[in-house]
Amino acid sequence: MIFGLLALALGLVGITSWWWSVTEFLRGAAPVALIFLGMLAVAAGVQSVRQPRTGKGFTSAPDIDG
User: Fewest Cβ atoms closer than 10 Å to its Cβ: which of 17, 30, 39, 63?
Assistant: First the structure.
């Protein structure tokens, strides 16, 4: 708990002291993060297309005739 509070305080001091460096890092990290997230989304989409669809999870309509 104490370590967490100390790290939080030092992090806030660091962000306020080196604000321009933080913004430069975020501007550089955002495109890289978008590329990785895009690759992950494409991989998930390709995997879902490759999996054969089964009838599980689908139920037929109930018989109301009795």
Answer: 63
Q: Whole-structure pTM over 0.85, yes or no?
A: no
- Using only C-alpha atoms, the chain has a radius of gyration, in whole angstroms, of 25
Report the distance separating Cα 48 and Cα 42, nearest Å: 10
User: Length of the chain, please?
Assistant: 66
What is the three-state SS of 50-65?
A: HCCCCCCCCCCCCCCC
8 A C-beta contact, residue 21 and residue 14: no
Query: Tokens 């975020």 label which residue?
Result: 26
What residues contact residue 42 under an 8 Å CB cut-off, 6+ apart?
Answer: none
